[in-house]
Amino acid sequence: MNHLLQEEEQPRGAKIRGRHPVDQLEAANRFIAATAHEMMHDNRLWDLRKKRDAQMHAIPEWEELRQLASDIKSHTLDHLADYLEEFEHNAKKNGIHVHWAKDAQESNQIIGDILKAHQAKSLIKSKSMLGEECGLRPYLQKEGIAVVETDLGERIQQLDDEDPSHVVVPAVHKTRTDVSKVFVKTLNAQPGNNDVHYLAEWQRETTRPYILSADAGMTGGNFLVAETGAVVVCTNEGNADLSANTPSLHIVTVGIEKIIPKMEHLAVFIRLLSRSALGSPITQYTSYFRGPRRGGEMHVVLVDNGRSTRLGKPNFKPGLKCIRCGACMNTCPVFRRSGGLSYGSVYAGPIGLILSPGYDPHKYRNLPFASTLNGSCANVCPVKINLHEQILAWRGELAKQGELSLSKKVIMKALGKLYANPKAYRQAIQMGDKILQYLPHFVVYNRLNAWGRQRDLPEAPKKTFHSWYKKHYMNGKGDEA
Amino acid sequence: MSSREEILNRIRQHQTNISTSLPKVPNFFDKSVDIIDAFKKSLLIMGGTLLLVGDADPLQALKEKIKNANVICSMVPEIKGNRELNEQNLPKELDDIDYAIVRASFGVAETGSICLTEKNLMINTLGYLPQHLIVLLDPAKIVYNLHDAYAQPEWYSVNYASLHSGPSATADIEGVLIRGAQGVRSLSVLLIS
Ligand code: SF4
What pLDDT digit, counting tens, does each position of B132-144 carry? Predict the structure, then answer.
């Protein structure tokens, strides 16, 4: 099997054609066809899920912490403007420059302008999903600024000219041989040496000179603390602290929803984040930036990009609580078997299903259907986002907006009025309503006995449903064919 | 209208302002836990190393560790290094250091973390650019969990601080765990007041 894994060509992600609807199913089918990659991916993410469970069981107050995290976020969203102003006030007092960007374009421009004002030509960067969301790297490169990603997974993806496939482990869909090929091509690594230690060391060695010579450094932010005006960054590789502390200019890009009121709340989220994400008690580094370092300058760009609009949509507002831990992806049977790149959007997996159509309902109209609605995502979510209910709500919303492909219309008709009614939906799940358990890739998944391993999931759909699905939905080609 | 006003206005228009009170966070203290023992266990889980306090010379194990190193930078009076730092040093100049020795502000039993502030480090990159990091920690300064950790006064006074939990690490390729990613390759802790 291992041999096969290292021989197999890496399946690529969804084909992107402008604003044309992304065909997730088509890309997923290609990922599934690469059986060794699919199995490695599935096993790796399931392993993270199991490690998360072990951490959860070791903390008696786990459920209490989740409730607290959810309540803190709800409260904060209800008073978001005040907390943002408090943050700004305190950050400025500590000497941080605070900027506000209403959308991706403005955020990119602000960052580009800061760099230009400092005649900065090179930027070292730690992983930032917001940066991906805004298309920051391509923008800066067009402006003549050399950007180097310093996180191993993100660097691999940058060098391969591919998007990250997962919010926490960006290259989780690649084998060591895939990585080796990329490094041979781009970093002059030893051909044929796919030893993981060698590859990681090679990246360290080739990145260090950039770290030492860069004009500016950039990080994202996991949390903003209103009370102290500080930015908190959680990482494992030490690259964020190097990016922030080595050059004299540190720029932070962060979404406005990342704010929490006080230091005592930070403890709740730090206890949950890495345990949910990777099943480790904490990230190796939990770093706290409350002001510029001696001789340095620090900027924080607060980015809206659709968040304040989402706040006004009661159905979709809970998505703003997300702390980007990736637990919902690790547990999702569709994600594990189709790979993050099949979604063709910055955010993949369950959280992607509910965020992406908010940015472009037409382009991402198929995503809310890449779910079995089994609710496992909501069960593991550390901030208790009702992911499956929002996925269902998006289906309804897309139906209203006339954004259903023919196959989706069939499904929606079968779902009847359930989608509009969370209570009826929950009841249906409890009763094991067959119609809710449809799964785009079920036919192909079945050979792995996907469901058998998961104690918190409903039983596999029966034959009758299976053949119904086959007849009405699976055309073997994809969604938009 | 500035973007700032535009964003804040739209938020105020959309936020519900329900008078949900701000949740009070309990500290979940478990009296039965031996804090020092728990710290040691957690440190090992995170990939850190524990240096034993010697009987005759408490620093014996530490000295053993650095005896063959070329460049040693010590920020603690107990050990003399061969690289002096001053506040004028550029952060990148710390790249050739083999061992940095610092004292932590406090430790956290729950996660085996040690807190290094800009004061402990003098130059922040001292925690990351050297190949190895050795940390002295007063066992009396280990708190039980992260709730206690974030109740410490440091957070309100420093511009920079970081909880280090073991050395830098990555599992980005096929989940294979590598200790020594971009930051230090090893982190050793000596519990000494
Ligand atoms: S939705 Fe929940 S589980 Fe998914 S990434 Fe966000 S916080 Fe984590």
Answer: 999 999 999 999 9
Residue B38: domain span: 24-191
CB contact under 8 A, B13 and A151: no
Residue nearest to atom 3 of ligand 1 (CA): A381
- Pocket probe for ligand 1: among A260, A335, A383, the residue whose CB has the most ligand atoms within 8 Å is A383
Separation in Å, CA of A476 to nearest CA in chain B: 30
Distance from CA of A337 to the nearest CA of B (A): 16
Selected residue of A236, A270, A302 to mutate for chain B interface (largest B Cβ count, 10 A): A236
> What's the complex ipTM?
0.97
| Stretch (H or E) spanning B113 | strand B113-117
Atom number, ligand 1, closest to the C-alpha of residue A351: 1
pTM of the entire structure?
0.91
Tokens at B68, concatenated: 């063959």
Residue A453: pLDDT over 50: no
| CB A69 less than 6 A from any atom of ligand 1 | no
What is the distance in A from the centroid of ligand 1 to the CA of A480? 28
Q: How far apart are CA A295 and CA A219, in angstroms?
A: 18
Number of domains into which chain B is organized: 1
For the residues B166-175, what does the mean pLDDT come to? Answer: 96
- A413 pLDDT tier (thresholds 50, 70, 90): low
What are the domain boundaries of chain A? 51-308, 409-474
- The residue whose two tokens read 């105020």 is B12
- Specify if B47 maps to a domain: yes
Nearest by CB: A238 against B3, B175, B182? B182
CA-based nearest distance B184→chain A, Å: 8
In a domain, B5, yes or no: no
Pocket test for ligand 1, best of A275, A278, A381 (most atoms within 8 A of CB): A381
CATH number where B93 lies:
3.40.50.10420
Q: How far apart are CA A127 and CA A150, in angstroms?
A: 8
Give the separation between CA A356 and CA A359, rounded to whole angstroms.
5
Which homologous superfamily is A51-308 in?
Answer: NagB/RpiA/CoA transferase-like (3.40.50.10420)
**Contacts of range A190-194, beta carbons closer than 8 Å, 24 or more positions apart:** A194/A6
Q: Nearest-CA neighbor of B72 among B92, B45, B52, B94?
A: B94
Give the per-residue pLDDT at B31. 82
Residue at A430: amino acid letter = Q
